[in-house]
């Protein structure tokens, strides 16, 4: 059976149906099914409900006036009490899978306990459907620009000195700096090493970390990883002469980067500890300041290759370098949290805990996900990431499957800085499209609901899939068996191919995306394809911007 629709007819059909649909209130619907059951409409389910355009260059949103009003009142009362805007901390792990942490069913169960992370998560809002981009650099740029990769232009990780693409873009740290925030970046950067894309030149007051990605500093030096390079003087010299930074660095706003130390495998053992100590000192310093702060903290771990130091080697019951790294990441997070607690900063700080993508399945030992696929793919395993938000006294402890994209952190942070909703449009050029949705009222409202209607997925600069509610529609997928004898190992070794048009999955009943229901459940394809076409119209008005890509 052919699965094809006319976009115009779809829009007409859905528009005609919308007035007949009840509001999502988790109450019985008025319609009666064939067997006589009324059924239910549930919160965070917007498949057939219209989103509202609040600004021409911003993603349409699902509006919740009551929770918006409640949230703005809470923020106003807090600012009256503290005398300043809230702080924002983004704690971004590297290549950590959805099920590596205890709050998502991993942790102890998979041999790497995360007790401190889980304890804080239990007092916050655990987001079971939070989405990154398929790989590291695109996700990091998405957080800092509020744009999907197709709009900010960094489609793949820049390697060995490739330039980045943040120059010329409006960034979150710069906007927060303009609002009086102190902006600090610590840890992994990986959005380009060219001077214009370095953190001290795109809005951060201070940076301590490295410019690229963990393996790029050590893989060519390690005889156990790449003996064909490490044991060849000519090849080693060739890599050494490539124009990329090989150091742990420090820089201040507008200045040059200063090398602190050459990053060898031995130095790598303690690198996350060094960054953590720098982070604690920053938090201690800000405790004496009357200014709010934005801390963007990107861990080295647990991207390959992991080199546990003497304290952590064998510390995980799994006794793998990855498991040991997860134990260390738990301690890193705990130390930063305890510093906030000691300094009395928790009452006025939003903490976002997340990962940049799914596990890197091509390089064991690696992280875990209960979903299909891995880093580099748009299967759920590649982009659904472990995430929670915590704010003492402000966020109700609970779990939600409301959809969140990490692009949402951009308008959400700016809401906290005093620019809620459509006001963000006044801070960026009119030619800049913001794909993020302000989720402040979702996070802070009593039983808040997500303000995002749909998640859009991208592969190498092409719109690949869309999700609304529990349904996901693919137009591009990665071939599940690539060029490896053992089969599918992850996203970067797959083959991208176009679907036949009926690839629809129910992520509640089939989280592995193994059995398409597109032919049997054709009605669900109508709103999904409508959303796909709606975003294509956005791309016509706000075209893609490609900087780093895979040809």
From TrEMBL:
Its EC number is 3.1.6.1. It is an enzyme of class 3 (hydrolase). Keywords: Calcium, Hydrolase, Metal-binding, Signal. Pfam families: Sulfatase. The modification 3-oxoalanine (Ser) is found at residue 136. It comes from the Bacteria. Belongs to the sulfatase family. This is Arylsulfatase.
């Amino acid at each position: 059976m052919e699965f094809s629709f006319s976009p115009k007819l779809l829009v007409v059909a859905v528009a005609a149906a919308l007035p007949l649909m009840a509001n999502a209130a988790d109450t019985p619907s008025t319609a009666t099914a064939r067997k006589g059951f009324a059924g239910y409409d549930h919160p965070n389910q917007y498949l057939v409900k219209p989103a509202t355009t609040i600004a021409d260059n911003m993603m349409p949103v699902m509006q919740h006036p009551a929770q918006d009003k409640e949230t703005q009142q809470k923020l106003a009362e807090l600012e009256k009490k503290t005398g300043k805007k809230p702080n924002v901390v983004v704690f971004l792990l590297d290549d950590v899978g959805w099920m590596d942490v205890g709050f998502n069913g991993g942790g102890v169960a998979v041999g790497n306990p995360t007790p401190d992370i889980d304890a804080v998560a239990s007092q916050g809002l655990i987001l079971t459907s939070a989405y990154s981009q398929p790989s590291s650099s695109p996700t990091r740029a998405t957080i800092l620009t509020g744009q999907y990769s197709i709009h900010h232009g960094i489609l793949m990780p820049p390697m060995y000195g490739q330039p980045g693409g943040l120059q010329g873009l409006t960034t979150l740290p710069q906007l927060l700096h303009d609002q009086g925030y102190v902006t600090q970046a610590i840890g992994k950067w990986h959005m380009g090493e060219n001077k214009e894309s370095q953190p001290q030149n795109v809005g951060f007051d201070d940076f301590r970390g490295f410019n690229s990605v963990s393996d790029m500093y050590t893989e060519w030096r390690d005889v156990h990883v790449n003996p064909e390079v490490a044991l060849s003087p000519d090849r080693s010299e060739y890599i050494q002469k490539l124009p990329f930074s090989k150091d742990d660095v420090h820089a201040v706003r507008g200045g040059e980067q200063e090398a602190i130390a050459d990053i060898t495998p031995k130095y790598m053992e303690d690198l996350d500890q060094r960054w953590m100590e720098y982070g604690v000192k920053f938090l201690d310093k800000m405790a004496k300041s009357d200014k709010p702060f934005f801390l963007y903290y990107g861990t080295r771990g647990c991207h390959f290759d992991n080199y546990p130091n003497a304290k952590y080697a064998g510390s995980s019951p799994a006794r793998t370098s990855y498991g040991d790294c997860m134990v260390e990441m738990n301690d890193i997070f705990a130390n930063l949290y305890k510093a906030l607690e000691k300094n009395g900063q928790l009452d006025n700080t939003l903490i976002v805990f997340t990962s940049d993508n799914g596990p890197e399945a091509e390089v064991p030992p690696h992280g875990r996900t209960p979903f299909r696929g891995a880093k580099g793919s748009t299967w759920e395993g590649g982009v659904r990431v472990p995430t929670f938000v915590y704010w003492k006294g402000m966020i109700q402890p609970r779990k939600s499957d409301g959809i969140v994209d990490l692009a949402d952190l951009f308008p959400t942070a700016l809401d906290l800085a005093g620019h809620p909703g459509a006001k963000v449009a006044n801070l960026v050029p009119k030619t800049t499209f913001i794909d993020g949705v302000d989720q402040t009222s979702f996070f802070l409202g009593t039983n808040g609901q997500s303000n995002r209607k749909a998640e859009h997925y991208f592969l190498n600069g092409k719109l690949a899939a869309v999700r609304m509610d529990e349904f996901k529609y693919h137009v591009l997928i990665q071939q599940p068996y690539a060029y490896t004898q053992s089969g599918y190992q992850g996203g970067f070794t797959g083959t991208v191919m176009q679907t036949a048009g009926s690839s629809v999955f129910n992520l509640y009943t089939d989280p592995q995306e193994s059995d398409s229901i597109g032919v049997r459940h054709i009605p669900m394809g109508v709103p999904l394809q409508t959303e796909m076409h709606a975003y294509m119209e956005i791309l016509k008005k706000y075209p893609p911007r490609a900087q780093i890509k895979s040809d």
